Amino acid sequence: MPNISYVFKVWQNGNNQKWYWNAKTPRSQEIIASSSQGFASKQSAIRNASLSGFKP
Hints:
1 helix, globular
């Protein structure tokens, strides 16, 4: 992953209680990466993001 600036977010979906993450550009808020599935825990979502080169 190139060294770029991004805003990282992890949240829990209220309907299915699963955790998701995404990374957006700081200014335009364009999503540059996101989880393709929900995770059972916040830590699992963060671990998945780190496999793609993103972290809080």
